[in-house]
From TrEMBL:
Protein name (Swiss-Prot/TrEMBL): Uncharacterized protein
Listed InterPro entries: TAT_signal (IPR006311)
Organism this protein belongs to: Sphingomonas naasensis
Length: 129
């Protein structure tokens, strides 16, 4: 009979220990997620990326040769993630008018893996918990 009564007690102890371990994991992961979220909002996206510096940005976000009519010169500085997120939600990028901001955000939406700024942009697309 002693074996039967120690079974449920041992199971409860294991469950409590697992619960405590799980709670400690959550406590240590949450600050890391908060830190990651803060660092994501501080990353920057250059327009265009340094490998294509000198190109202009057309209204649809494609890169075109400098001086192309209707295209916009690069802004000169990279945009912070929080500014990009605001612009993607209908606002404008700092220091730009509506049309120029739209061209730049179209460029950002077209970023591909391996392009400077892609990781920052991709992290903006991740849902936050």
């Amino acid at each position: 009979m002693a074996d039967e009564s120690s079974g449920p007690v041992a199971s409860r102890r294991r469950a409590l220990m697992l619960g405590a371990a799980g709670a400690s994991a959550i406590v240590s992961i949450r600050p890391a997620l908060a830190q990651t979220s803060a660092s994501v909002m501080n990353c920057e996206i250059p327009v265009p990326d340094p490998a294509r510096a000198g190109s202009y940005i057309a209204a649809d976000g494609t890169l075109v040769p400098a001086g192309t009519p209707g295209a916009y010169p690069p802004p000169g500085t990279a945009f912070k993630a929080e500014d990009v997120k605001r612009a993607l939600s209908g606002g404008t990028l700092p220091g730009t008018d509506y049309e120029r901001s739209r061209a730049y955000t179209n460029y950002i939406r077209r970023l591909q893996s391996g392009t400077s700024g892609f990781t920052c942009f991709a992290s903006l697309q991740m849902p936050r918990g």
